[in-house]
Amino acid sequence: MYSAESAIKVFTGNAHQSLAKGICDELGIPLGKCTVGSFSDGEINVDIPETVRGVDVYVVQPTCTPVNDNLMELLILIDAFKRASAGRINAVVPYYGYARQDRKAKARDPITSKLVADLLTSAGADRVVTMELHASQIQGYFNIPLDHLKTIHIIAEHYKNYNDLDKENTIVLSPDIGGTKRARNLAALLDLPIAIIEKRRPKANVSEVMNVIGDVSGKHVIMIDDIIDTAGSITKAAQVAKDFGALDVYAACTHPVLSGPAIERIQESAICELLVTDTIPLPDEKKIDKIKVLTVAPLLAEAIRRIHGNKSISILFD
Q1: Are the CB atoms for 240 and 200 separated by under 8 Å?
Q2: List of the chain residues with pLDDT < 50
Q3: Which residue from 193, 108, 202, 94 is spatially nearest to 151, judged by alpha carbons?
Q4: Catalytically annotated residue among 21, 82, 199, 286
Q5: CATH 3.40.50.2020: does it fit domain 152-294?
């Protein structure tokens, strides 16, 4: 544990103050004093009433909704700490917005995840700590160290301690081919078999057909994904599992974006429980009985502890 006088300080903008406080509680230090507001015309202004000269600074700020505001807050905070002669500036971005724009899917598409990486570096970040990037190759967009933490162990531990789940008759289901590796990793940790939903469109203007590779009949099903946005894919996959004879369908994800009709879809879906982490804050209007939240604060605190002590953190993402 660190004392308040140690050469480490954690700050945050307005994106997720409760997570930042949770990290500080784990580290045994107070949250750094910082006010992020705006001028009358909407421009962001920052007030940092304590010294950071020579200090290792960690700025906790997921770039979730409102994405552009939270991103600008992060960039401006980094710039402020750089100009205040902070020792090392570490951007802790539990949810990395724009990660899904990682390649050119068609002509003249931007690669916005690379642009954000360049912006963080140009602002003055010395290191980025993030979690469950939508595409692992985004790590290569950075010319500074990036630590890519995984939440799979947190999720697996929840199910290991789930007394109501009959593990003898449980299977992990990937909602699509692209998520097979993620599902296989969870299945390995839980010592469970795996099934995969295959999606195909027989021909143009013919509705998509979903098939299950593997046997889910008479089984409890656990589905896992990295992001749930509008919840269309995950709820359709849950219904497919039920149509193929699954008993109960559980779902888990790291980043609960949950935009648009997501909450309504989840509430009305075959999913009996949705497990999420707090990389993104869950507002009161999105807190329903089906959703259970696990905190990533201890994992991020341990990463910060190891980074500050110049110790290996590879154990945290193995």
Answers
A1: no
A2: 1-5, 207
A3: 94
A4: 199
A5: yes
